[in-house]
Design brief:
single chain, about 180 residues, mainly alpha, two-stranded antiparallel ribbon, 7 helices, flat
Length: about 180
C-alpha cells in the first residue's frame, strides 16, 4: 500500500491540477497585459521617420567614384588578394577525389542483403479472389485439397444485418444486400 498522504496529494492533483494551471496562465496573461499597458510608448514622430527615409534615399542615389572606393579600402587595410593568380595556381594542381574519400565505409555489408531485391516475386492477379463484404483473399490454387474445383460460396443471407441497416439508415445504400449491387 502506498502512503495515505501521497494518495491524497495525487487525488488532489488529479481533481484540481488543471484549475491551478489555468489560474497561473490567466495570472501571467494579466501581468503581461498590465506591463504592456503601463510601458512608455515610442517617442518617434512621423517627421523623424520621413527625415530618416529621405537620408537613406540620398545615400542610395549618391554616386561614388571607383577611385574613392579604392582609397577607402586601402585606408581600411583591405588589399587586393589577386584572385587571378590563386585560380591559376590551383588549375595547375589538380585535385583528386581520392584524397577526400572516407577511410571506412558507412555501413558494413550484410550477408544476403541483396537477395530479396534481385529476385522479386510478382503476385499474379489471377490468384486473388474477392468476396463480398470480406475483401480480397489470397488463393494458392484453384482446387481444394480434395482435388475438386473450389465450390462457390453460398450467400449467407439476403437480408442485411442489423448493423449494416443502421449504418446507412432505412433504405440506405449501406443496408442493401450484396446481390442488389451485383445485379
Amino acid at each position: 500500500m502506498a502512503n495515505a498522504s501521497v494518495e491524497k496529494l495525487k487525488a488532489l492533483g488529479l481533481r484540481h491540477g488543471e484549475k491551478v494551471v489555468m489560474g497561473l496562465a490567466a495570472g501571467l496573461s494579466l501581468l503581461f497585459l498590465f506591463q504592456a499597458a503601463t510601458r512608455e510608448t515610442i517617442q518617434t514622430t512621423p517627421e523623424e521617420v520621413a527625415k530618416s527615409a529621405e537620408q537613406a534615399q540620398q545615400n542610395l542615389q549618391r554616386k561614388q567614384e571607383p577611385d574613392d572606393i579604392l582609397k577607402r579600402l586601402e585606408e581600411a587595410g583591405i588589399k587586393n588578394p589577386s584572385f587571378e593568380k590563386i585560380v591559376d595556381s590551383q588549375s595547375q594542381n589538380k585535385l583528386s577525389a581520392d584524397t577526400f574519400k572516407l577511410r571506412t565505409a558507412w555501413t558494413s555489408p550484410e550477408p544476403g542483403a541483396g537477395l530479396i531485391r534481385d529476385t522479386p516475386v510478382l503476385i499474379a492477379p489471377t490468384e486473388l479472389v474477392a468476396y463480398p463484404a470480406e475483401g480480397v483473399r489470397w488463393s494458392t490454387s484453384s482446387k481444394t485439397e480434395s482435388g475438386s474445383p473450389r465450390a462457390r460460396r453460398t450467400p449467407r443471407s439476403r437480408r442485411p444485418s442489423p448493423s449494416r441497416a443502421r449504418i446507412g439508415g432505412r433504405g440506405g445504400a449501406a443496408g442493401r444486400p450484396w446481390s442488389a449491387w451485383t445485379g
